[in-house]
Amino acid sequence: MTIKQISIFLENRKGRINDVTKVLAQAGINMEAFCIAETADFGLMRLIVSEVDKAVDVLRAADFAVIVTDVISIRCDNVPGALSSVLETLAEKGIFIEYMYAFSRSETADVIIKPDRLDECARILEGISRCSR
Amino acid sequence: MSRDEMTDLQGKRLHKLVELVYHHVPFYREKLQAMDITPEDIRTVEDIVKLPFTTKQDLRDNYPLGLQAAAQSEIVRIHASSGTTGNPTIVGYTGRDIEIWKEVAARCLTAYGVTRNDIFSVGYGYGLFTGGLGVHNGVEYVGASVVPTSTGNTEKHLRLLRDLKITGIACTPSYALYLAEAMDKAGLTKDDIYLKVGAFGAEPWTENMRREIESRLGLQAYNIYGLSEIMGPGVSYECEFKQGSHICEDHFYPEIIDPETLEPLGRGRTGELVFTTLTKTGMPLLRYRTKDLTSLMEGDCPCGRTSVRMTRIIGRSDDMLIIRGINVFPSQVESVILEMPEFEPRYMLVVDRVNNLDTLQVQVEVRKDYFSDEVGAMLQLKKKLADRLRSILSISADVRLMEPNSIPRSEGKSVRILDKRHID
Fold first, then answer.
1. What does the pLDDT read at residue B277?
2. Each residue of B245-301: pLDDT tens digit?
3. A65 to chain B: which residues are within 8 Å by CB?
4. Can the peptide bond before residue B64 be classed as cis, meaning omega within 30 degrees of 0?
């Protein structure tokens, strides 16, 4: 399904990631998944959180540069080959993945995908109600 | 006034000035005697080239009151410059000086269209700095209502702008942008305030900054130029055509010189601006080197004023950075940044020396609307600015994209350069 992801522009400075997590902690917002893309002088922190609007408000109030992007979230069984079958389907349909990241729990794994064609990708994945081996 | 009448007046005033300093300022008498010049040798304004220059260092060497021509009992006010790099510069004004200052400041305000029906906020610092009191007196002289807001309390300033329906403002251009930003934060637009006219000065600014200030504050932005050694704000001003600043040359005689050879340069040539205070009696100065780089314009202004105009200050002869042997003016960097909507109009230049090679880092803040979630897009933005800077500066700069509000702002003159080469 399509969900909202928060991206934050961060200068490469000590303690800057902690500044983000502190703001979210104080607002009682839980992070469900995140990843960081880095370059020599800045990074982009991408987050999936419990309350998107509230998170954007508190982060902007703390002067962070926040962007909200639509991404696709899917849940896979936490077994070998589960993700591969999903990606196989997307590759066959010619969907390009700009970036992705995943968090696994005991039985399942959540995968966040940023494709080039969001709507089409979402439709394709709806066909696979729950990905398994 | 015709050019001949002006030249005649300037010549007479120059002669009187030289008489004054010859008889009342030992520093000048010694200099003139050493050059074998007496006041009788200075009869017309062309004779000015025979006179010695005065520098900031001369003021420092004669600290605090060594260059004063008037007796202490005649001095009614004393201002002082910041003196970040040595003794502060002390300037004493006689009652007559204050009257003239008031009158030239009023000339500026009148050119901007300020009348007795305006309510005018002075957002320059009050105190030793000449900006606040200088404009203040001019506003009162015009008969408008002056609000001495000063600096430091932006929230109250915004409130007064709305509640008093203030129509005019004077402050530094960077403070004007700071105000615009505070308005954004408070959810206010130019339609919530009543400003029509702004007088901006005390730091160099660009045409792009003018457009930005005008569109965000909804006013006409005019340049006001001055320096405390010569008087304060009111030395020159823009008229409604905004094509150079008219110099009050009946009081402040301008010359442009080559800062290296000290040779006078003709109209249209860029060099260091030099002023002689034709009518000042407190601390009159001969050929004071301002360090400001500009040129005097040829031709008449469509407004009908016949006074000579100076172009925008392009930098300071001592602010100029020499990086890898290339002359770099911070204003060049500024104009590039202001032309790109992706960036906030603030920047910081960090100059350093790594392995005996000068490096220039340009720190800029990306505007909130222009951040991207994709690393590639952000790197492209960085490259776009770096490419433009290289084509303007002829040297490459390391562009550093910064988070919003991470570059320090100042409410007075903005500090935009950090030269680490001099810090050991």
1. 98
2. 999 999 999 999 988 789 999 998 888 999 999 999 999 999 999 988 899 998 899
3. 366, 368, 371, 403-404
4. yes
Q: Where are the alpha helices (DSSP H) in B365-424?
A: 375-393
* Partner residues linked to B315 by β-bridges: B293
Rounded to whole angstroms, the Cα distance separating B39 from B13 reads 12
Residue with tokens 């003018």: B210
Angle between helix axes B95-111 and B130-142 (nearest 10 degrees) is: 70
The shortest C-alpha distance from A79 to chain B (Å) reads: 30
Q: Which residue has the tokens 């930005």?
A: B212
CA A3 to chain CA centroid, nearest Å? 9
Chain A nearest-CA residue for B377: A44
Residue A51 is predicted with a pLDDT of: 94
Question: How confident is the prediction for chain B on average, in pLDDT?
Answer: 91
How buried is residue B4: exposed, middle or buried, by Cβ count under 10 Å (0-12/13-18/19+)? exposed
Top-confidence residue, B328 or B214: B214
* Complex ipTM over 0.85: no
Cβ contacts of residue B185 below 8 Å, gap of 6+? none
φ, ψ (nearest 5 deg) of residue B361: -110, 135
Q: Are strands A97-104 and A65-77 parallel, antiparallel or unpaired?
A: unpaired
CA distance B403 to chain A (A): 6
pTM exceeding the 0.90 threshold for the entire prediction: no
Nearest 5°: the CA angle B136, B142, B146 is 40
User: Scanning the structure block, which residue is given the tokens 């006219």?
Assistant: B197
Domains of chain A: 2-67 (3.30.2130.10), 71-132 (3.30.2130.10)
